[in-house]
Amino acid sequence: MYSLHELIAMSERELAQLPYPARPAGLYEPIRYALGAGGKRIRPALVLMACNLFQEAVTAAKPAALAVEVFHNFTLLHDDIMDNADTRRGKPSVHKKWNDNTAILSGDAMLIYAYRLLAGCDEKSLPRLLTVFNEVAVGVCEGQQYDMDFEKRTDVSVAEYLRMIELKTAVLLAGALKLGAICGGGSDMATDLLYKYGISIGLAFQLQDDLLDTYADSDEFGKPVGGDILEGKKTFLLTNALARADEPARRSLLELLSDRTIVPAEKIARVRAIYDRLGIRELTEKAVAAYFADANLALDALEVAPDRLKPLRELTAELQGRRK
Amino acid sequence: MYSLHELIAMSERELAQLPYPARPAGLYEPIRYALGAGGKRIRPALVLMACNLFQEAVTAAKPAALAVEVFHNFTLLHDDIMDNADTRRGKPSVHKKWNDNTAILSGDAMLIYAYRLLAGCDEKSLPRLLTVFNEVAVGVCEGQQYDMDFEKRTDVSVAEYLRMIELKTAVLLAGALKLGAICGGGSDMATDLLYKYGISIGLAFQLQDDLLDTYADSDEFGKPVGGDILEGKKTFLLTNALARADEPARRSLLELLSDRTIVPAEKIARVRAIYDRLGIRELTEKAVAAYFADANLALDALEVAPDRLKPLRELTAELQGRRK
After folding, report:
1. Chain B residue with the nearest C-alpha to that of A26
2. A24–B142: do the CB atoms touch at under 8 Å?
3. Is A284 helix (H, G, I), strand (E, B) or coil?
4. CA dist B133 to B47, B54, B117, B163, Å?
5. SUPFAM superfamilies attached here (chains A, B) (predicted)?
6. A138 to chain B: which residues are within 8 Å by CB?
7. Which CA distances in Å does A316 have to A167, A193, A295, A311, B222?
8. Pick from A176, A195, B26, B271: CA 20 to 30 A from residue B166's CA?
């Protein structure tokens, strides 16, 4: 059995060994750059971890693990164009280093490359793997669309927000586990429980992100706190605040967020004060804890020897303890 | 057995019946718009035609036929952004009607949708179909990359140009036939011959395009003649002219093409005069005829009853006779 960090290291090694055609360089250089730029490699590790629950060797899951990580990086290439993000993991994003057309086309090739990698899985499992992969991929696109739609709306409900982050973030983590479990020969029940676990840690992770962006210790966090507030981003915090506030408070919160004359630090402090008054921090902390509890319950229900669950428990604990 | 036009009509009907989720509308509306905007539906008809060589029913090939057409339309969405094309089939292109982000994300969802459709094929054939589809899809991206690369180069050889159009155009036609043959249970030899037929008609088709763009009767052609010359596009005509010309003629042709002070009609006439002097028109007409002859040779070698080849012969003849 492999530890979480062994599987992350294995993912990194396998990714580094992926072959690329030399030409056309304009298509493959950006792919190599994007996949070599680091990242936590949580998703391929999840694929391998799920497989490792049912098999000592994880070889059978390697193609799916790589497919998931290449797919994830494809979404980053295209999202960075759509979100106009200039940097990614401390380096220029592909559309900044090259241009939009390069990021579009190399992204397309990465999506196709992900399917090529997936096609390297065992033929018997392939139809099922392909179905899961397709569902996940469509879900991620739908999530990105909702995320963009929400930018233009002020009436996003908490339920809508949760559905969006489920699609945009959680479904890929859950799908990674499901693919790994299928490769490892897990039962349908086990596969479904792992999917549920993935959804729960995905939601918990995103809610933590929302929380940290507003409440983190800025030294520990590594980037300025309050970015979501300044962008007026519909987060778990904001959608809950808008839901809890009475009509006058709701209106003044929306006005405050759209006010471009207030200095950033003051805007952040004032929004945070409203959140504090409404108990948004505690509410979110409780929601995060509840999702992590759900995640552990899904693991409890798995019919595998408890010691085999160590890497997944370890991951849950690491995520739960993060401060950045 | 179905005729070419029956299979085109069937493709149109099947496409019109494709279900789309209602939400998020921002993702699915552009897909419905793009797929409903017409098009010749040659590619899905090729899938069905190839299947129909080996089976009376074409049901087994319908998912692959739809996958190919959805994939083709995905490439149009993204190519229209990259090429800054404002219209498509007489209507605003998706990135003009909506915006770039919409065309990127809806395009991505279409590519995934193509894979979902493909996954509806018979499970036994799926691994092979997926491999063919992946190869084709990567090839099309590589072709688009070369096409964009060529815009910045003046030293594109005829061989490079042919390789580019093989990837960008011919490989999808060939792949469509190969997928259909696999669905229909054709032998490996038959499948390969159909692939070759597809490459040949694809190359012939693109060379005809190049020829018509410079030499068509503008009334019959339906759009202004000479667009490629004004854009300085690397076509079969231009790459051959540059290869045939001596160094001074080569240099003056390149200067003429990049000269922005000459009025369009004169530029077109002068380039055409150079082409005429170099015998480029006849050369291209011969190449087109040779590719169509290759196409028919591939069909001749197929071990199926000659009458079953009627739709493919009909297609070849229709393509060969086109004036627009």
Report:
1. B145
2. yes
3. helix
4. 12, 20, 12, 19
5. Terpenoid synthases
6. 109, 112-113, 116
7. 20, 15, 8, 9, 63
8. B271
Neighbours of B26 (CB within 10 A): 18
Structural domains of chain A, with CATH: 4-320 (1.10.600.10)
CA distances from B40 to A118, A252, B46, B75, B310 (A): 32, 55, 11, 15, 19
A235 C-beta neighbours (distance < 10 Å), count: 25
pLDDT at residue B283 in the model: 98
For residue B186, give both structure tokens: 């054709």
Number of A/B CB contacts below 8 angstroms equals 105
Distance CA B218, CA B212 (A): 9
Inter-residue contact B155 to A151 (CB < 8 Å): no
For A5-24, give one letter per residue: b (16+ CB within 10 A) or e. Answer: ebbbebbbebbeeeeeeeeb
> Are the CB atoms for B191 and B179 separated by under 8 Å?
no
The residue length of chain B stands at 324
Chain A residues with beta carbon closer than 8 angstroms to that of B138: 109, 112-113, 116
Q: How confident is the model at residue A222 (pLDDT cuts 50, 70, 90)?
A: confident
* Inter-chain CB proximity A138 and B116 less than 8 Å: yes
Q: What is the pLDDT of residues A89-133, one digit of tens each?
A: 999 999 999 999 999 999 999 999 999 999 999 999 999 999 999
**Structural tokens at position B157:** 């050889």
Rounded CA gap, B322 and B324, in Å?
Answer: 6
What is the nearest CA distance from B115 to chain A, expressed in angstroms?
7
Pairing of strands A91-92, B87-88: unpaired
Q: Does A104 touch chain B (CB under 8 A)?
A: yes
Q: Select from A111, A112, A116 the residue whose CB has the most chain B CBs within 10 Å, as the one to mutate to test that interface.
A: A112
Residues of chain B with pLDDT under 70: none
Q: Does B120 lie at the interface with A, CB-CB under 8 angstroms?
A: no
Measured at the CA of B89, the angle between CA A146 and CA B80, to 5 degrees, comes to: 50
Of A160, A7, A30, nearest in space to A98 by CA:
A30
Give A88's strand partners: A91
Asked if residue A162 has pLDDT above 90, the reply is yes
Write out the two tokens for A95: 């559309």
CA distance B253 to chain A (A): 27
pLDDT at residue A221 tops 90:
no
Q: Which of B78, B109, B127 sits opposite A123 (nearest CB)?
A: B127
H-helix or E-strand containing B315?
helix B310-320
CB contact under 8 A, B146 and A24: yes
- Contacts of residue A42, Cβ cutoff 8 Å, sequence gap at least 6: A8, A173, A315
Amino acid A175: pLDDT: 98
CB contact under 8 A, B26 and A112: no
DSSP secondary structure of B199-245: HHHHHHHHHHHHHHHHHS-HHHHSS-TTHHHHHT---HHHHHHHHHS
Q: Is the dihedral of CA A280, A281, A282, A288 positive or negative?
A: positive
ipTM of this complex:
0.96
Our separate counts of H helices and E strands in chain B read: 17, 2
Long-range contacts of B116-120 (CB under 8 A, 24+ apart): B116/A134, B116/A138, B117/B63, B117/B64, B117/B66, B117/B67, B117/B70, B118/B63, B118/B64, B118/B67, B119/A127, B119/A130, B119/A131, B119/A134, B119/B63, B120/B63
